[in-house]
Amino acid sequence: MWFRFPKYSFPSLKNYHFDGFVNPVPGFEWLPVPDLFHYQFLEELLLIASVFFILGIFTRYIGIFISVTFAYLFFLSQFNYHHHTFLFVIVMLILGFSRCNDHYSIDSLIYKNKNKKGKILPIRLLQVLISIVYSFSFIQKLNYSWLSGDIILLFLSERTIRGDFPDFINSALSGEYLEYFWRSLGPFTLFAEGLLAFGLWIPRLRRFTILMGIILHLGIDLTIGVATFSLQMMVLYIVFIYPESKMNTVYYDYKNMFHRVVVSIGKLLDWFQRIKWVENTPGTLGIEENNKLRFAAMGNKPGSGMDFIYGITSLMPLTFIISFLPGFYLFLKKRFTG
User: Fold this and answer.
1) Can you give the residue ranges of every domain in the chain?
2) Complete DSSP assignment for 95-147
3) Fewest CB within a 10 Å sphere: which of 2, 198, 202, 329?
């Protein structure tokens, strides 16, 4: 069964106040209020700028422009005051002042920068930002209403929680089981946000923490229209996937065509440069067998087969979610070890 997400929209004509009542954020009354034509013009500029940013054209300048423009709309009126907008402004500002265009952008093709080694500071800033968001959210919710789940029942009664998924739950469960389910979402939210505040920093907890975060935000998006906040937070988990560059090594045989293809695809998907790709020449590993792709995580002994597939899958932004699939590890273990 497919569930539709609750409908929401962001900045559009609904945020333009035709009656002239703006209600600016205190301290920002001096900001000029655009008329309808210029408001729509700003939206069109943001659309074009977003395409440029995705393609990596003048990436850093575009990132700063997007951040400043959204900040202007954010502080223009208290009606535009949304937490996901503020988060977006900060993230785009960090990206704009970082070297985010050094790889996989049109900028990197035009301006060939030989020094591709970037700084870790932008990633650390984003990591700290995520922890701050979850820490304050956890502290704010640390009360009886959330611990007991009363707040969830209130959301239901006020139709704040709505959509196909809540309707499905209400039809599938009944009586006390239905109430237990909805009440359980309160303490689960506290558990997940409390864990996300610190668990992302601990390697042994990181995978489980990311899984809890994905469940939390998918659940929020299925029940409450929160615009892009959940999507932003889930995407930002990428910065916690082994932030240290070149700490993992893949050994391959350059003469093997299959190896060359795998390495080419791997380099394309290795956005954060987590992996160092080393040609396995005789004596590199101290072993005679040279026909297998091998993966070594952070100085550990190189492994092939299951270790190689599971290792690189868990490192790359577009594939790490596969390593969370139930039975994926057991499937590899059965496939390669019998």
Assistant:
1) 13-118, 128-240, 248-337
2) HHTTTTTSSSSHHHHHS--S-----SHHHHHHHHHHHHHHHHHHHHH-SHHHH
3) 2
- Cβ contact 63:96 at 8 Å: yes
Residue 16: C-alpha distances to residues 33, 41, 244 (Å): 10, 13, 44
Whether 56 contacts 108, CB under 8 Å: yes
Residues 6+ apart with CB under 8 A from 162: 6, 223, 224
Q: For residue 28, give every residue at least 6 positions away whose Cβ sits within 8 Å of its Cβ, in sequence order, or none.
A: 75, 76
Q: How far is CA 216 from CA 196, 221, 275, 289, 318, in A?
A: 10, 9, 30, 46, 20
pLDDT for the residue 328: 76
Percent of the chain with pLDDT over 70: 83
Q: What is the pLDDT of residues 219-241, one digit of tens each?
A: 988 888 777 888 889 999 988 87
Residue 240: how many CB atoms within 10 A of its CB?
20
DSSP 8-state assignment for residue 173 = -
**264 vs 237: CA distance, rounded Å:** 25
- Greatest distance between any 2 Cα atoms in the chain: 79
Tokens for 243, please give them.
């932030």
| Residue where the block lists tokens 């892009």 | 228
Rounded Cα distance between 306 and 99, Å, is: 35
Which residue, 324, 68, 292, is CA-closest to 210? 324
Tens-digit pLDDT profile for residues 283-319: 555 444 556 777 777 666 677 777 778 778 877 877 7
| pTM reported for the whole predicted model | 0.72
Q: Which two tokens stand for residue 261?
A: 């293809």
